[in-house]
Design goal:
Shape: globular
Helix content: 40-55%
Oligomer: single chain
Number of strands: 9
Number of helices: 25
Radius of gyration: 27 Å
Length: 539
């Protein structure tokens, strides 16, 4: 070490240089489209794209960070990333007085409670630590009927409104929500261990199930034998030594009857120390004793793994890939941007400013491994795809009460590569046959709805076909107005202008279909093609 220091003193040391970037940035309009989708769950309008062409993306980023759509979209983001939307919970809707037909609304209300709290903190630029220290939650009518809560502002009129629990539970933000613990259920004899593992995985990126463990065969597989193994077997102790005390901090939510709805959503302060007799472990947070359940949230907020995990999760979402150890330098820098003022919006700004986020392609210097590890196109997740299509066309694919892109009992979330949080815990959004089929049907339904509506509406009331003042059904193929309408569709749906070959092919398609089935059918065919185009469902 001393020799190295002496050598450094006597030698002129070259300044470190950054390796040249392998990323080629998107043009401003496609970048604005990416940012708008990620922040608002919708496409930029043609007017917004024109403003970007004049001044770049800096102004629209700030505008969209203040858009009410940010909070709405972030609910989907956190619900997807934290796997909060199960199709069926372990407890049935009837336990809370709901019918089987209300099952979809019930499960979504439960899973979305923590997602709404996180999105509320972000959108209102509250300190992000509040997600684990807040003394409030957000509820809708379903939750207010089933949970011991009261509205903070009874006259707010909001569907999802700030509420407080009335059963004495601690101010631990999402960790005090019944929604999170109904989603991440525990059986009576699991003693909150699954919940503790979920807490560590979601908030600290610490996956207890990923640890290598060597188990010895058990001579006694009875309940008593298993309990003894947890206390004495080295393979068991390696996990349970940290998980059991953490699980002990959640015993106020531990139920005597794990299928009783009221038992599950009522907090039980008198049970907070029961882990000592149930598992033999006193409540603790990774070695720090916990004498009051209200300490849990602040301990998570103070854990250095917490901001790093939140930065990693955000980077993975908006870079469109899993991070590796090679990304740790960037992830820690992103975590610093979060902890500077605990503003999640600052973290978003830092990610959106990164070269990788803004990349549209890679340079020829990129290696095969870099091309494999840095996808420059992202695919729309099922919920975002549903939101983008609805915003652009007015069509929302539903069957009875269920969102067809948001569930798998009757819907197509899995076909689109989404994760259900149960049988599939990792989304796969790459192009597949099933994804192509689902997008095809979605495009057909959306084009039928929007063209039917827009051909009957006044120009100012149209959703998609609106460039000229002429009724779309009266536009003549090959005229300037018709070509302008096609280019407007390309800009609105793809954020790029169609080239001559594309416009010619679309004009030919329109002409052929319109000759047989009429002008509206011709426009439906064109809009269907544009919605099925990878330029639409990637960004």
């Amino acid at each position: 070490m001393m020799l190295a220091l002496l050598y450094a003193c006597e030698t002129e040391v070259a300044e470190p240089t950054e390796a040249p970037s392998i990323f080629v940035p998107l043009d401003d309009r496609r970048l604005a489209r990416r940012i708008s989708i990620d922040l608002r769950g919708r496409l930029p309008t043609v007017t917004e794209l024109a403003s970007v062409s004049d001044s770049g993306v800096a102004d629209v980023i700030e505008s969209w960070l203040s858009d009410p759509a940010l909070e709405t979209h972030l609910v989907d983001v956190f619900a997807e990333d934290w796997l909060l939307r199960l199709d069926r919970l372990r407890v049935e809707p009837k336990e809370f007085g709901f019918t089987a037909e209300e099952g979809y609304a019930f499960t979504r209300a439960v899973g979305d409670e923590p997602a709404h709290l996180i999105a509320h903190v972000v959108a209102h630029d509250r300190p992000f630590t509040e997600i684990v220290t807040a003394d409030y939650t957000l509820t809708n009518d379903f939750l207010r009927e089933m949970l011991p809560v009261e509205l903070v502002e009874p006259e707010s009129g909001e569907q999802w409104a700030v509420s407080r629990y009335t059963d004495g539970r601690p101010a631990n933000g999402i960790l005090a929500t019944s929604g999170l613990w109904l989603r991440y259920h525990t059986t009576i004899f699991n003693y909150n261990r699954g919940r503790a593992a979920a807490l560590a995985r979601l908030l600290l990126c610490y996956d207890i199930a990923g640890r290598p463990v060597i188990f010895q065969g058990l001579d006694d597989e009875s309940t008593e034998g298993l309990a003894e193994a947890v206390r004495s077997d080295p393979g068991c102790i390696s996990c349970h030594a940290s998980m059991d005390p953490l699980a002990g901090t959640l015993f106020g939510f531990w139920p005597y009857e794990d299928l009783d709805g009221r038992e599950l959503v009522t907090y039980h302060p008198e049970r907070e120390r029961l882990s000592e007799e149930s598992t033999g472990s006193a409540p603790a947070y990774f070695g720090t004793p916990v004498t009051s359940a209200g300490q849990l949230g602040p301990l998570v907020a103070a854990d250095p793994r917490f901001p790093v995990c939140m930065a990693r999760r955000a980077a993975e979402r908006w870079w469109g890939r899993k991070t590796t150890s090679a990304d740790d330098g960037q992830v820690y820098a992103l975590a610093d941007s979060l902890t500077a003022d605990w503003s999640y919006k600052a973290l978003i700004r830092a990610i959106v400013a990164s070269d990788e986020y803004r990349a549209g392609s890679l340079t020829s210097a990129a290696t095969d491994a870099e091309r494999e590890g840095h996808p420059v196109l992202r695919s729309l997740s099922p919920n975002t795809l549903a939101d983008v299509v609805e915003d652009a066309t007015g069509f929302r694919w539903r069957f009875e009460e269920a969102e067809m892109l948001d569930e798998d009992l009757v819907g197509y979330r899995a076909l689109l590569g989404g994760a259900d949080g149960d049988s599939n815990r990792s989304p796969w959004l790459e192009p597949t046959v099933s994804r192509s089929l689902a997008i095809r049907r979605l495009a057909q339904g959306a084009s039928m709805i929007v063209v039917t509506a827009d051909t009957a509406a006044a120009p100012a009331a149209r959703t998609l076909l609106y460039t000229s003042g002429v009724d779309p059904a009266a536009l003549v193929a090959g005229t300037a107005d018709f070509d302008a309408e096609l280019q407007s569709l390309h800009l609105r749906l793809h954020a790029v202008e169609g080239d001559a070959a594309e416009l010619a092919a679309e004009t030919a398609l329109y002409t052929e279909v319109a000759a047989v089935s009429g002008a509206p059918a011709g426009w439906m065919a064109v809009v269907t093609v544009l919605l099925r185009d990878p330029l639409f469902w990637t960004y």
